[in-house]
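Researcher: Please predict.
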Amino acid sequence: MSTLPLFDASGAAAGEMAVPATVFGAEPNESALHQAVLAELAAQRQGTHAARPRGDVSGSNRKLWRQKGTGRARVGDRRPPHWTGGGVAMGPQPRSHRQRISKRLKKESLRWALSAQAEAGEVLLVEPFEFTEMKTRSLAALLRAMGAEGRVLLVLGERNEDILRCGRNLPGLVVLRAAEVNAHDVLSARKVVICTDALPVLEARLS
């Protein structure tokens, strides 16, 4: 089992804590991890983009002038794509961007992401904390004391409305439960702060 830096509820260093190799000891497969992250990003796309083709643009279907003999370019109705106000040729239409990946790859990608961040020294553990005054500045002070600033992912064992409310105004901070975190969340953070009560949840997900 490897170890990670541990901090107490005030942000002071409290030594190191052993963590399961099943969560933080994997050798990343970069190509498969890339595929999993792309699938997670694709799933976030709404797919509601749409453009009006010429059939959806209002206007008559009447041929504007005869085909030959006018000296002008031939044309049909008044809605061709190259005319101002015409329809869009081969424009986007609503669709799903989801990419199918296996449950095993989704699980392994999270393991690889956590292992890579831990190997780089970007994963910190913190004991479960509560503030006497649940304010944004209290959470900011805790993270600052731990050296976690900028893009930070805070992983909780269970949903905590007070911590969510404290963290929503901190730029760059993302607060997630251990049951919902994914590989993209982990890799996009500069520092990953994990509450110790989230470790059993992660271990159960990745076992």
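Model: The first helix runs from residue 21 to 24.
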